[in-house]
Amino acid sequence: MTTSIGMLVIASVLFGCGVYLVMERSILKALLGLLLLTNSVNLLLLGMGGRSGGPPIVGRTSEAHSSMADPLVQALILTAIVISMGLSAFVIALIYRSFTLQTREDVDDDAEDKKLPRRTRAEAPDYELPRPAPPTPPGGRHGPPVDGSDTDFDQTDFGNRDQGGDRG
């Protein structure tokens, strides 16, 4: 299977022009760049599919089997054409909507995007102030005693309970 050098050169020139146009600020130029990119990829796939010749499906044992074109590549190209036409219709609708709203179709830099490199962390919308550590209670780490005495474990208190006396 050989590929025509002319087809490769044409596909590479179309690909380079398409990449250049996609980098432009105009939506229309980006659309033309996308169309050039898809057409260059289709030409590359077509060139890799083999030489054109007889019908793609002849049979497994015929002599024409070695010189026929690959039907899978042709199906891929047809699918790519349909997808690129749908994408271009969507971008044309975007261009129309942008032109009706702003009477131009160029994409401007957003003022908020220009502020991003100069923004501090505290100005970020997802920034949360650090929570202060909770104060330690006056009785130490575990807090004051529950019963108001100096310790929670008071031996005399248990002694009074065992004897039936009231707390003092």
* Approximate helicity band: 40-55%
Q: How many whole angstroms does the radius of gyration measure?
A: 38 Å
Largest sheet: none
- Give the overall shape, derived from the CA principal axes: elongated
**Helix and strand pattern:** HHHHH
What amount of the residues lies in strands? Answer: under 5%
Mean of pLDDT = 76
End-to-end C-alpha gap: 105 Å
Structural class: mainly alpha
Number of helices, where a helix is a run of at least 4 consecutive DSSP H or I residues: 5
Oligomer: single chain
Number of strands: 0
Poorly predicted segments: none
Describe, in plain words, how this protein is organized in 3D.
The protein is mainly alpha-helical and 168 residues long. Helices cover 51% and strands 0% of the residues. It is built from 5 helices and no strands. The protein has helices at residues 5-22, 27-48, 71-102, 111-115, 155-163. Helix 1 (5-22) packs antiparallel against helix 2 and helix 2 runs antiparallel to helix 3. The longest helix has 32 residues, at 71-102. The radius of gyration is 38 Å and the shape is elongated. The N and C termini lie far apart (105 Å).
Search tags:
168 residues, mainly alpha, 5 helices, elongated
Brief description of this entry?
The protein is mostly helical. It is built from five helices and no strands.
Helix and strand topology:
Layout: H1 5-22, H2 27-48, H3 71-102, H4 111-115, H5 155-163
Helix pairs in contact: 1-2, 2-3
